[in-house]
Amino acid sequence: MRGGPVRRGRRRRGLLSTVVGTVLLAVMLFPVYWMVNASLQPTGTTLGAGWFPSHPDFSGYATALRDQGPNLVTSLVVALGSVALSLGLAAPAAYALARFSLRGTSLVLFGILLTQMVPGIVVANALYGAYNDLGLLNSRLGLVLADSTAGVPFAVIILHSFMRGIPGEIIEAARMDGAGRLRTFRAVVLPLSRNALITAALFTFLFTWSDFLFGLTLTTTEAVRPLTLGIYEYLGAHTTQWNAVMATAVLASVPAAVLLVVAQRFLTADATSGALR
Fold it and tell me: For 17, phi and psi rounded to 5 degrees?
């Protein structure tokens, strides 16, 4: 007798949760919808545009690709370079901190956490003086190094937590088979840490891709300019061409969205494996 009211109550709560979740999702995705809608409007009609573009106009995308194409390439090169450098430095550092009996490991990890608390403007100002002396201003290499200052500590923290949970028996078995430390790290630890590496790479890419501060501080010419800075200056130069501005924003969102979709199953697997350990 009681089963019926209980089931109906559960269904009502489930329906209410679904409705609330749908409303919240619609609110969060509305800016994305309006960005795409505005990018398909003719020039000068964005503010008075309807809810749906009845006659899509792709001239904004043509303008965005023409004006912001080099900036898009720069952002891709810098983001991928930062991912490669961050993982190349963070993976062996995390492995050493996780598996070797080193003095002061806790202090090192605490220091890495502290670096995440340093305001970005402080780092950017310090790098500007050093870059000016080293000739790294207005260079993609300079931006890669600057963005890696945020990517390396984050990747070390993520990878250290994962590598510490790798069973020691697996590493010892590899050592008994004649593998040295470097080969064990390359052939055993890195494959087992695939999900953690993908997680660290994804977030490092997103950090770099959305960076504005380093691009604004460390580039002073149009020769090397990330896409975020290009959008910022694009607004000042083309305030009436909102379709081109929104088209640039859509193009800037595509790589990050694709990476999130592709890497979602690896992120889920990493979280699950961390919970199981």
Answer: -65, -40
